């Protein structure tokens, strides 16, 4: 192998989200890597191998360091640094003896190690104070001089501050207008600082995976559409965005969602799973595609168990949506009522029927007489069994009552379907025709259509 880069160090700033940090130089052994964490007070801590993962050992193009280990734990925050360096032992362990095999690869490995040592020494020297070539001054003496100059500079600064204060006092005593202008300038500066702080505060509120509703028609820089398409690295064939700046969002969706809500695909578009890919870093390196939420035509609803306790306002039993699952969806634009969803329809009949003129004729008419008064049990007895609970018919009576004479005690019908038509037949009998619902009803809340974006 060979060394194609002169670098042996890389450094990253934290953002509270990223866990994968690449290096583009060869590291052969895990004992040759030094990972340094620097806090916001610029205090360095050398991490142990129990605190980070590394892949790409022995690869000329480098690999990835994952911190914290396994992506579990506190991520590198804003203002914190992580530095990856290669540090090989300054030793020579290759033993070439007479009249033995002289393998080129062994010699090359030895030369590679020597070059690595030279590179790490060069990186160390680049951080040192170096004396000019022609200088005859001892470095230790120079350091003492520098300390003296620092002390002298501090004393001069203190004296300058005293002089400045005296001058300022003179100005205050002699020129009140200048003082007023000075105060106004300070007030303006304070307002500018407050405005800057406010702007910074608003900016810090927007994090990766946040969404925003907007009435603008074009995509904002640093955002993607909530389109249900896919994101991934260059070469992943992703359909929403194929770029390195999607890695943080890719990682969040890999860790926070299941394969059901946000499926993960191979670069060829075939199905894969989070279990098969092990972790987000592996899936990213394999050029997998990550689905993003599909919010087209959807309203957003808070997860039912946010904070740990379920509110039971969105449940699968009532809404058919699993309200406790991040990314679950459901609901329909229109709905067709079925069964008892439409309520009940009730209609009643009395126990008498009044016939309209002309009077009933024929043999039955002769037996009953001219029936233009309410039927009663006696008339019913002449028609048949006369038991009030039954219904009787005497057939067609010369077209006067074409459906025949029917009689019963008062009774009520209840229907679970919709009543479509209602009318009155001769004799005062109400006719209700019962039909099932066939038209869907509109089920959409008052809405205004806008665009929804997701922060990278």
Percent range of helical residues: 25-40%
Tell me, briefly, the overall form.
Answer: flat
CA-based gyration radius:
44 Å
State the low-pLDDT regions, or none. Answer: 349-410, 415-434
Strand content: 15-25%
Encode the helix/strand succession as letters. EEEEEEEHHHEEEEHEEHHEHEEHHEEEEE
Q: Which structural class best describes the helix and strand composition? A: alpha+beta
Q: How many angstroms separate the termini?
A: 38 Å
Distinct helical segment count: 9
Tell me the strand order in the biggest sheet: 11-10-14-12-13
Largest sheet: 5 strands, mixed
Explain how this protein is built.
Helix content is 28%, strand content 18%. It has 456 residues and is α+β, with helices and mostly antiparallel strands. The strands form seven sheets. Strands 11-10-14-12-13 form a five-stranded mixed sheet. A four-stranded antiparallel sheet has the order 1-7-3-4, covered by helices on one side. 14% of the residues are buried. Strand 18 and strand 19 form a beta hairpin. The longest helix has 36 residues. It folds into four domains: 112 residues, no CATH class; 46 residues; 126 residues, no CATH class; 96 residues, no CATH class.
Secondary structure blueprint with pairings:
Blueprint: E1 9-13, E2 20-23, E3 33-38, E4 44-46, E5 53-55, E6 63-66, E7 81-86, H1 104-126, H2 139-174, H3 176-204, E8 211-214, E9 223-225, E10 230-232, E11 241-242, H4 247-256, E12 264-265, E13 271-272, H5 274-277, H6 280-285, E14 289-291, H7 316-319, E15 334-335, E16 345-349, H8 362-368, H9 377-383, E17 411-415, E18 419-425, E19 429-434, E20 441-442, E21 451-455
Parallel strand pairs: 10-11
Antiparallel strand pairs: 1-7, 2-6, 3-4, 3-7, 5-6, 8-21, 9-21, 10-14, 12-13, 12-14, 15-20, 16-17, 18-19
């Amino acid at each position: 192998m060979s060394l194609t880069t002169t670098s042996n160090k890389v450094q990253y700033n934290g953002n509270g989200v990223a866990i994968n940090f690449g290096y583009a130089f060869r590291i052969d052994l895990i004992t040759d890597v030094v990972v340094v964490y620097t806090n916001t007070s610029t205090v360095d801590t050398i991490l142990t191998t129990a605190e980070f993962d590394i892949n790409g050992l022995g690869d000329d193009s480098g690999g990835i360091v994952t911190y914290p280990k396994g992506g579990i734990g506190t991520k590198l925050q804003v203002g914190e640094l992580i530095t990856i360096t290669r540090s090989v032992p300054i030793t020579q362990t290759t033993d070439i003896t007479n009249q033995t095999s002289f393998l080129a690869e062994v010699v090359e490995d030895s030369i590679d190690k020597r070059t690595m040592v030279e590179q790490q020494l060069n990186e160390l020297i680049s951080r040192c104070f170096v004396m000019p070539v022609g200088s005859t001054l001892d470095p230790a003496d120079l350091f003492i001089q520098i300390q003296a100059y620092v002390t002298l500079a501090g004393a001069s600064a203190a004296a300058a501050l005293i002089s400045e204060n005296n001058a300022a006092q003179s100005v205050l005593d002699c020129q009140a207008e200048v003082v007023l202008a000075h105060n106004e300038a300070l007030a303006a500066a304070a307002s500018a600082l407050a405005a800057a702080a406010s702007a910074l505060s608003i900016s810090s509120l927007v994090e990766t995976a946040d969404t925003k509703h907007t009435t603008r028609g074009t995509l904002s820089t640093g955002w993607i559409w909530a389109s249900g398409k896919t994101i991934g690295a260059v070469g992943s064939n992703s359909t929403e965005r194929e770029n390195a700046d999607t890695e943080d969002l890719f990682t969040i969706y890999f860790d926070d969602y299941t394969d059901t809500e946000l499926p993960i695909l191979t670069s060829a578009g075939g199905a894969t799973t989070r279990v098969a890919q092990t972790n987000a870093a592996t899936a990213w390196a394999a050029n997998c595609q990550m689905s993003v939420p599909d919010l087209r035509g959807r309203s957003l609803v808070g997860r039912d168990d946010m904070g740990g306790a379920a509110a039971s306002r969105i449940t699968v039993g009532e809404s058919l949506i699993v309200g406790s699952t991040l990314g679950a969806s459901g609901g329909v634009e229109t709905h067709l009522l079925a069964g008892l969803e439409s309520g009940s329809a009730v209609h009643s009949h009395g126990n008498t029927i009044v016939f309209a003129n002309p009077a009933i004729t024929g043999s039955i008419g002769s037996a009953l007489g001219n029936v233009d008064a309410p039927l009663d049990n006696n008339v019913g007895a002449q028609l048949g069994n006369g038991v009030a609970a039954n219904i009787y018919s005497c057939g067609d009576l010369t077209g006067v009552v074409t459906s025949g004479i029917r009689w019963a005690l008062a009774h009520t019908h209840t229907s679970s379907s919709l009543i479509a038509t209602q009318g009155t037949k001769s004799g005062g009998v109400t006719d209700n025709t019962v039909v099932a619902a066939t038209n869907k009803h509109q089920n959409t809340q008052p809405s205004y259509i806008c665009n929804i974006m997701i922060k990278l």
